[in-house]
Design brief:
The complex is a heterodimer of chains A (460) and B (353). Chain A is an alpha/beta fold and 460 residues long. Chain A is built from 15 helices and 16 strands. In chain A, the strands form 4 sheets. A 5-stranded mixed beta sheet of chain A has the order 1-14-13-16-15. A 4-stranded antiparallel beta sheet of chain A has the order 2-8-7-4, with no helix packed on it. Chain A has a 4-stranded parallel beta sheet with strand order 11-10-9-12, sandwiched between helices. Chain B is an all-alpha fold. Helices cover 56% and strands 0% of the residues of chain B. Chain B has helices at 22-44, 46-69, 80-90, 98-110, 126-137, 171-183, 191-198, 204-209, 221-233, 240-259, 267-272, 276-283, 294-314, 321-338. The chains are: A alpha/beta (460), B mainly alpha (353).
């Protein structure tokens, strides 16, 4: 009894401390690179003549195509149904004709099934498909179902189906919906612009998420490098509202789910667990803004805001791009400089490099970062031996020992990395590799090790 | 237009890197050592300069040859061998025979580093391995101290410097040299040996300013501190190690001082005498051989301070920094193993209710 009371007061003290500091431990401060696009209002890109909609744009099961070759479709019409619970629907971003259902290359370089749509003569911005519904009358379960059929996934980059996160596992409850407006990845400004320009949709989306999860409050975590978004949202939220703005320190990877939960609630998601294990659910601001906009109209997700930036782009900015638009079309339109050498989907810390310009923009693409020859030449080339400086240990937000794991990976001791050094808790944020003075490709080692371990387990 | 441009490249994330690379860190350590070298030359003359040059050249050459013999690319351009050579020279008596310093350079790299697998894999600080070797091999030469600030130091070598290989130094010439210095009021005995064997305590001020005898680069405590601050500010040196080690020396020597103030020196004497400053700032902090975990770093630093005091006051030798650091290096893997931080989200041990 006594110890329980002590425990409680300890917890309270700890949580008030966390609110004062509002951050997680460790992490890095890479150059932000956001000044290029953060002031640029969201613009619409012209419609591409053709789009390619991969049926696997999200984490989970493939969507099932429900259209046939040569079928005429209109913008907003559903073209694929969810292939299971952890899967979402797909919708046509263009009015036109289905030319084929075939395989297409996605960012991983893998060929995946996709629906190819050729646009009509005069593309229209308006979405004719879908009928307005009264979402206020929806039960939590109906909200979840509507989110799944709207094809919503985490737009921050992970592309995890949103309705799954809205579904509270049995025996658990959510006490806080965390709205992730950190955008800690350098160079990206989509979340920033969405918070400023789609505020009403965002607030509507947050209220839907609160109802679906039954959570009594929502915290919008925003890094302090976006004071305009913090001020605007505070202004827009009425007094005594369940939604409040929670500024967090500008530090990478503040926007990682686990780091944000640590910063705002001073709770740690258990190793191998989910945010719901600590009564939290985290959603990206762009996801919730789309939810708030689409659900009342009964429409599906067909386009998203993407930051196109980097030295290799002539007209950087924040653009609404229909899903399935090829990188080539986007970059041709915005000016692809001859010195451009690398195209990254997402931010520079975690974004994968595109294997080709003929891959489509998908739901998880928050940025297109084009690096030039000079930017790449500035990167260190030579790899030195690990000098055990411990810098990686000092920055790892998960408190792992990348230095030790890197040495084990070199020796192929992948199993030991998992068993003794918590390899699977690494979410590949890249802090260790960023900070490593010896330029050791730590993240790549860890990916290799994880893949090898998965393959070995699959064999058994 | 995207047509006709060179093919785009593939690379894995992260796509940006912090600019400070290992060779830059090493080069900055060399820069930070140069003022210390300069003071050594200022205090002990051309003998000290020759000592630094010979030890460094020997270490770098050994590194180059070892790599070539192993059929690998040379690694002298990471500057780590340069640091080893300079550090070794700075820990030797200014009049140390140059041929012995050359042997030390070879031992430091070949025995202290290459044998373990090169940079990053050595267990002990290579410079200190070589110094320990020299101490065992040439016990007389390594305890033959010459006084500082001899007037002829810029024109004349300390006689022992130029001893022929495998021949001992000309004792008469050295005696004459030292006698010459005694006229100027300088003595060749180091403050620590005077404390140990004569019960005399040098004033702390002269220890701090470096007007005493000692190893080539250990005498100017203020300068070593300053160079350490430069590296720490540039985040190329872990400030916790010198702070922890020096702090622990002060605490443990205070205990002895309070027990018997006539027999044991005051903590400031301990702090600024001998090789402590050089060891704490430049050698205990050798990244390869010190712990990486936050708790481990403090344990290591405190242990080093404790061992230094213990060896100096209770051991047979006047100076204990070298062995303290080598012992600390030896237990580093153990410290690392037992101080791994709790990872984020690790299942907490639930206390029995």
């Amino acid at each position: 009894m006594d110890s329980a009371a002590k425990d409680g007061s300890k917890k309270q003290m700890a949580s008030s401390q966390a609110i004062a500091s509002r951050s997680f431990q460790h992490g890095i401060h890479p150059p932000e690179g956001k000044e290029v696009t953060q002031e640029k209002t969201i613009q619409r890109l012209p419609f591409p003549p053709e789009v390619v909609i991969p049926l696997a744009q999200h984490i989970g099961a493939l969507a099932k195509a429900i259209v046939e070759k040569k079928q005429e479709i209109v913008r907003g019409e559903a073209i694929a149904d969810p292939g299971g619970f952890v899967s979402v629907a797909m919708h046509a971003p263009l009015s036109g004709t289905v030319t084929k259902i075939d395989v297409a290359m996605v960012v991983s370089g893998v060929m995946t099934p996709a629906v190819f749509i050729k646009g009509g003569e005069t593309p229209e911005e308006d979405v004719c498909h879908g009928a307005p519904v009264d979402v206020d009358a929806f039960s939590p379960r109906e909200i979840v179902a509507a989110v799944q059929s709207a094809g919503l996934v985490g737009l921050g980059g992970a592309a995890f189906p949103t309705h799954v996160k809205l579904t509270v596992p049995e025996g658990k409850s959510i006490d806080t919906v965390i709205v992730n407006g950190c955008e800690c990845e350098p160079c990206l400004t989509t979340d920033h612009r969405v918070m400023l320009e789609q505020m009403d949709d965002l607030l509507a989306g947050i209220r839907l998420a609160l109802r679906a999860t039954g959570a009594p409050r929502a915290l919008i975590g925003i890094e302090t490098n976006k004071p305009d978004a913090i001020a605007a949202l505070r202004e827009a939220i009425p007094e005594h509202d369940p939604i409040s703005v929670a500024p967090v320190r500008t530090k990478y990877p503040q926007g990682a789910e686990r780091m944000l939960i640590r910063a705002l609630l001073n709770r740690e998601v258990p190793s191998g667990g989910l945010p719901s294990d600590v009564s939290a659910a985290v959603f990206n601001v762009a996801t919730l803004a789309q939810m708030g906009a689409l659900l009342p109209k009964g429409q599906g997700l067909i386009e998203r805001v993407v930051t196109v930036t980097g030295g290799g782009v002539e007209r950087p900015g924040n653009y609404v791009i229909p899903m399935g638009t090829s990188l080539r079309f986007v970059l041709d339109y915005l000016g692809f400089k001859g010195s451009a050498r690398q195209v990254i989907l997402g931010g520079p810390m975690m974004g994968p490099a595109a294997p080709s310009l003929d891959i489509p923009v998908t739901k998880g693409v928050s940025g297109i970062l084009v690096l030039t020859e000079d930017e790449l030449a500035a990167l260190p080339k030579k790899v030195f031996p690990c000098i055990r400086c411990g810098k990686c240990v000092q920055v790892c937000p998960m408190f792992l020992n990348p230095s030790r794991m890197g040495l084990l990976a070199r020796n192929g001791q992948y199993e030991l990395m998992e068993q003794a050094f918590h390899l699977n808790d690494c979410f590949e944020c890249g802090c260790c590799a960023y900070t490593c003075p010896s330029n050791i490709p730590l993240v790549q080692y860890f990916r290799m090790a994880k893949t090898a371990n998965r393959k070995r387990k699959a064999k058994k | 237009m995207t047509e006709g441009v060179a093919p785009i490249q593939l690379r894995t994330s992260p796509h940006i890197r912090q600019a400070v690379t290992t060779d830059v860190i090493m080069l900055n350590v060399v820069y930070a050592l140069l003022p210390v070298v300069a003071f050594a030359v200022f205090a002990f003359g051309i003998s000290a300069l020759a000592l630094v040059l010979v030890a460094t050249a020997s270490a770098v050459l050994t590194e180059h040859l070892v790599q070539k013999l192993a059929g690998k690319k040379t690694t002298i351009n990471d500057y780590s061998a340069v640091i080893t050579g300079i550090l070794l020279a700075l820990t030797l008596p200014p009049g140390f025979p140059l041929w012995m310093a050359a042997v030390g350079g070879i031992v430091s790299i070949a025995l202290g580093k290459a044998l373990f697998g090169g940079l990053g894999f050595n267990v002990f600080n290579p410079a200190l391995v070589a110094r320990a070797f020299l101490q065992a091999a040439f016990p007389v030469a390594i305890t033959t101290w010459s006084p500082a600030f001899i007037t002829t130091r810029f024109t004349q070598f300390i006689p022992s410097s130029l001893a022929w290989p495998f021949l001992s130094a000309d004792a008469d010439a050295f005696a004459a040299y030292v006698k010459n210095a005694a006229i100027d009021g300088w003595t060749g005995a180091t403050p620590l040996s005077r404390m140990k064997f004569e019960g005399q305590f040098e004033p702390v001020a002269s220890l701090f300013s470096g007007t005493v005898a000692g190893s080539a680069g250990e005498t100017a405590a203020w300068l070593i501190l300053l160079c350490g601050v430069y590296l720490a500010v540039r985040k190329m040196l872990d400030w916790r190690i010198p702070v922890g080690m020096l702090g622990s020396v002060v605490v443990f020597s205070l205990v002895f001082y309070l027990l018997d103030g006539t027999k044991y020196p005051n903590p400031f004497f301990m702090l600024f005498s001998g090789g402590l400053m050089l060891g704490a700032v430049f050698m205990a902090t050798d990244m390869v051989t010190c712990p990486t975990t936050p708790l481990g770093v403090w344990i290591y630093a405190l242990l080093l301070g404790f061992l230094t005091v213990l060896i100096r006051l209770k051991g047979g030798l006047p100076e204990g920094v070298m062995y303290a650091i080598l012992l600390g290096n030896a237990v580093t893997p153990l410290i690392n193993m037992y101080t791994q931080p709790r990872i984020y989200g690790a299942k907490k041990v639930t206390a029995p209710s």
